[in-house]
Amino acid sequence: MLEKIAVSKGQKGKSTQDDIVYAHIFDAILEQRIAPGTKLNEESLGEIFGVSRTIIRRALSRLGYEQVVVLRPNRGAVVASPSIEEARQIVFSRRIIEKAVTELVIENAEDAQIDKLKKLVLDEQNCFDRGDRGAGIRLSGEFHLRMAELANNAPLLSFQRSLVSQCSLIIAQYESGAKSHCSYDEHFELIDAIRQRDKAKAVSLMMHHLDHIEKKLNFDEDTSSNDLKSVFSNIFAKK
After folding, report:
1. How does pLDDT run across 99-145, given as a tens digit for each residue?
2. Any idea where the domains of the chain sit in the sequence?
3. CATH number of 2-81+223-237
4. Any idea which fold 84-215 has?
5. HEC letters along the chain
């Protein structure tokens, strides 16, 4: 079963089974298809992915390390559901990380890498244009992860990976309004500033981008699903 999943997701052959399960759960969180507070039943996930509970447990352990899953002794794992105060702390922390990442990207990124970053944003825009909101949201998160990779600082990348996925949970839990996205416009502007090596402008644009995200949070709405089979049904629908 997981061989088919790996092909559909473009995973490399060297990926382990828990790598693949981890990646699909992580993607589901980035796409806001899985609701905060959802119980991640090992038996159900094992049936969904066609793997042992040991494989599932290893994948969940990695997600727990990144603080997007809460591992509860003798009660199983649940998707993290940040409180209002926790959400504010996460957003604050992300501001600090994003500023450092942006500065380092300007110092370290080569033009060819910036071109690839722009291609990712074009893919993000295409997803939203064709109505694939989930994939668009995931690519929006991947933009920030790619930025952290270009910063060439391993600890920052580790922090950013956790913060981006936690912010996705916060948005799924607390975002208000019609949930319109103009993230790709702001990403394009940011890329232009990076290409110009304008550190002050790039940092200002990044802070504005985070302001835009934060202003849409009203700590009141919840739109994701807690039905695991429904969340991952798209994996098996593609041959």
Report:
1. 999 999 999 999 999 999 999 999 999 999 999 988 888 899 999 99
2. 2-81+223-237, 84-215
3. 1.10.10.10
4. Four Helix Bundle (Hemerythrin (Met), subunit A) (1.20.120)
5. CHHHHHHHHCCCCCCCHHHHHHHHHHHHHHCCCECCCCEECHHHHHHHHCCCHHHHHHHHHHHHHCCCEEEECCCEEEECCCCHHHHHHHHHHHHHHHHHHHHHHHHHCCHHHHHHHHHHHHHHHHHHHCCCHHHHHHHHHHHHHHHHHHCCCHHHHHHHHHHHHHHHHHHHHHECCCCCCCHHHHHHHHHHHHHCCCHHHHHHHHHHHHHHHHHCECCCCCCCECCHHHHCHHHHHCC
